Amino acid sequence: MTPLPDRPDEDTDGDDDAALFRAAIGEVRRLPDAAPPPAAPKPRPLPRMAERDEALARDEFRHALDQSLLEAGDALSYRRDELPPKVFARLRRGEMSAQEELDLHGSPVREAEALLRAFLNDAREHGLGCVRIIHGKGRNGVNDYLDSRGAPVLKNLVDRMLRQRADILAFHSAPPAQGGTGAVLVLLAKSQRRR
């Protein structure tokens, strides 16, 4: 070993320092090369057939809706096969009293859809048999209440949603004294909940 200088300000040769360092740390082994980072995962294959089928189904659904859009003065009417025609006739004449009512007048479409779902779920949960939904005729406000073809938006939304629900036995536009074609009376199936 080389002796250290007596004074820190004394210059030493750079080679001596390197040799001293090598002697102090000993033999050096080269580390193996680091493994390369993993390759990016391959993208999932696109489900082109499924996407095409979905697009075709949406187009078919829109086409069917366009053909069956209700106008402002059209009556909403639907009856499931298991409901006796006499009971439906009583509903149509307004002889069944509505136990609750929902007024969707002036509601934006998304809000009206959420309100209607919640209202029907609540009515069913509380065992109500008949309810009234006021959707309006769509004659006021061209932009908010009519679609591009002039059909009333909320009226068609209510008709479509009621037809899709399994807990709806029947519905019909209310008699003139109860709102006429701007409201609908809905007959709900009894809840199957066990108590």
Q: Give the radius of gyration.
A: 38 Å
Instruction: Determine the fraction of residues in helical runs and give it as a percent range.
Output: 25-40%
- Our estimate of the beta-strand percent is 5-15%
Q: Under the CATH scheme, which architecture of the domain at 73-188 would be assigned?
A: 2-Layer Sandwich
Structural class: alpha+beta
Mean pLDDT: 81
Give, in spatial order, the strands making up the sheet with the most strands.
Answer: 1-4-5-3-2
Reading off the top of the CATH hierarchy, the class of the domain at 73-188 is best stated as: Alpha Beta
Low-pLDDT runs of 5+ residues are: none
Biased composition (Pro residues): 34-46
Protein name: Smr/MutS family protein
InterPro entries: Smr_dom (IPR002625), Smr_dom_sf (IPR036063)
Biased composition (Acidic residues): 8-18
